[in-house]
Amino acid sequence: RSKVSVFIELHKKNAALAVEINERKIAEQRLRESELQLHALAARLISIREEERTAMAREVHDELGQVLTGLKMDVMWLRKHIAKEQKPLLQKTETMRRLIDSTMQVVRRIATGMRPEILDEMGLVAAIAWQAKEFQKRMGIRCRVKLPAGHPDLGTALGTAVFRIFQEILTNIARHAKAGSVNVNMTISKKRLTLEVADDGGGIAQSAVHARASLGLLGMQERAQLFGGELKIHGTPGKGTTVSLAVPLPPQER
């Protein structure tokens, strides 16, 4: 073949390679843009869900609580105006009062589960301590807690994310771990927040950690990534599971 034909063939190959490289770069750029859009969408969905939880918790606590309080006052009024000789009616009003009281407790528990007031009023550290205590009381699993002193202001969004991750960890322990005790250790420095939760249960398998069906685990990882954090889960068969969260603190919060 002549040098001209060889040159033309090489030129065509180089041109085709350049087109392929350019198309690959475009595809990679589109993939990165899609990932960013998915992260932004996930962040927005999480934010909307928290807003809905907060609004619903307030509505349940305030609106339904006021209705139950009014109903209780009416029952007490009836009780005062019923003659002492009418014991069946007095017993019925007492039963109604007890039922209203128990319903009010259920309402408070539901509202607190959706959005604990302590998280907004006293911050993340107090909310973690409260949730651990509630978990121990409800599940009968001993919960040892080591938390930083004071109540550092981490911001509503970050504090909520860490708290929801902690709640999900405890939920997984209650459902799957068969643990007898849980150790919680949280530290907050000028640059980083770390949270470690270790149980002495059966130990999660690594295949379960990376399973697509583990929506709870995926949700925790997504929340951590939204703040530039990292979530690690390590299980040892028969010895328990340790979940470690590390989140960098933004400059304005250092």
Unreliable stretches (pLDDT < 50, length at least 5) are none
Major β-sheet annotation:
5 strands, mixed
Quick one: how many beta strands?
5
Helices and strands, in order, run as HHHHEHEEHHEE
- Bin the helical content: 55-70%
Average pLDDT works out at 84
Spatial order of the strands forming the largest sheet = 1-2-3-5-4
Termini distance? 70 Å
In terms of DSSP E residues, the strand content is 5-15%
Question: Mind explaining what this structure looks like?
Answer:
With 254 residues, the protein is of the alpha+beta class. 66% of the residues lie in helices and 15% in strands. The chain contains 7 helices and 5 strands. The protein has helices spanning 3-81, 87-114, 117-122, 124-139, 156-177, 206-209, 215-226, and strands at 142-146, 181-188, 192-199, 230-236, 240-248. It has a 5-stranded mixed sheet. α4 (124-139) runs parallel beside α5 and α5 packs antiparallel against α7 (215-226). The longest helix is centred in the N-terminal third of the chain and has 79 residues, at 3-81. It is elongated. It starts with a helix and ends in a 6-residue tail after the last strand. The model has no long low-confidence stretch (mean pLDDT 84).
